[in-house]
Inverse folding.
């Protein structure tokens, strides 16, 4: 099979919302009037972001999901994506499953694949996603204000705990592992939440590299500090697991793909309503302060000392 047969068979679909999709030197796109284009790229590298023998259906899902999560964090409606693949060889069974996982999620969000690049090399998956957000309505990292509430969606830590189990640093009961592994392999991007938070959140970020690291990006960009109450952070972990590893997974583990956002206190009722409508827990875990840095209060009332803040490829 040639490179062009591969593209044609696995990655060419009709793209009604593009002027021109796969097949030319470039795609042609038109954003709707009054909208800004939000663009983001996320790359998944074999051995760094996933195990080389990862299930291809789930990998197809995750490759797009991590990019949709960035659209969610901007409050943007995802619309188009490009997919750049580096593959060691053409494995048709693998491509069939990978593209199926990718398009199942793409169809769910009506995202159209409008181009990409395909080369031979170490397994590497890179998506660029494009979305739309009304002018000046994007949820940026630089808008947090002192006294804003800090909120987080869903629960934190499961993906990192599942990874710790796979790496052998903890042993989870089999059923618990299966439940946590779903967070690791099949994250659900919080796109609907991002859209609902337009005009309500002052700032937002998706939690991909660890909660404290990602909240830290909001704090840096907004030039503010934060106080977090550890006991309020939503997790599904039981108290028997309340040890150092669990705390590290919750505060600094990666791959949660939940949204962390800040909002003025007058929006609390509105945010509770959004939570009910979306059937998604939204939890207030602390507040923005005028100082700098992030203070985490532990269950004993003292300030927690945290060394490992999150994942950094070059640290
Ligand atoms: P060029 O030589 O101009 O870079 P390519 O031969 O790389 O073009 O790609 C041909 C067409 O197929 C282009 O429209 C490109 O966007 C698309 N394409 C290539 N790889 C992929 C892929 N993995 N998924 C979707 N479209 C792809
Ligand atoms: Mg090319």
């Amino acid at each position: 099979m040639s490179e062009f047969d591969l593209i044609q068979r696995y990655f060419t679909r009709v793209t009604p919302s593009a002027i021109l999709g796969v097949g030319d030197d470039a795609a042609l796109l038109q954003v709707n009037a009054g909208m800004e284009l939000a663009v983001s790229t996320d790359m998944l590298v074999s051995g760094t972001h996933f195990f080389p023998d990862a299930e291809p259906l789930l990998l197809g899902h995750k490759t797009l999901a991590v990019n949709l999560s960035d659209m969610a964090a901007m409050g943007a409606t995802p619309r188009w994506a490009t997919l750049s693949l580096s593959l060691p060889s053409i494995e048709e069974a693998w491509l069939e499953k990978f593209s199926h996982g990718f398009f199942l999620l793409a169809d769910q969000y009506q995202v159209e694949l409008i181009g990409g690049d395909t080369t031979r090399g170490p397994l590497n998956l890179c998506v660029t996603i494009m979305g739309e957000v009304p002018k000046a309505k994007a949820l940026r990292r630089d808008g947090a204000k002192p006294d804003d509430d800090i909120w987080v969606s869903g629960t934190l830590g499961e993906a990192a705990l599942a990874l710790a189990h796979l790496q052998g640093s903890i042993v989870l009961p089999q059923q618990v592992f299966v439940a946590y592994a779903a967070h690791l392999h099949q994250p659900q991007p919080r796109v609907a939440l991002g859209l609902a938070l337009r005009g309500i959140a002052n700032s937002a970020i998706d939690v991909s590299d660890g909660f404290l690291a990602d909240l830290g990006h909001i704090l840096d960009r907004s030039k503010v500090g934060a106080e977090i109450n550890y006991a309020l952070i939503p997790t599904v972990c039981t108290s028997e697991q309340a040890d150092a590893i669990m705390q590290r997974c919750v505060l600094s583990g990666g791959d949660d793909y939940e949204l962390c956002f800040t909002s003025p206190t007058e929006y609390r009722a509105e945010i509770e309503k959004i939570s009910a409508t979306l059937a998604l827990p939204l939890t207030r875990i602390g507040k923005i302060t005028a100082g700098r840095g992030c203070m985490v209060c532990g269950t004993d009332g003292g300030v927690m000392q945290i060394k490992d803040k999150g994942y950094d490829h070059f640290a």
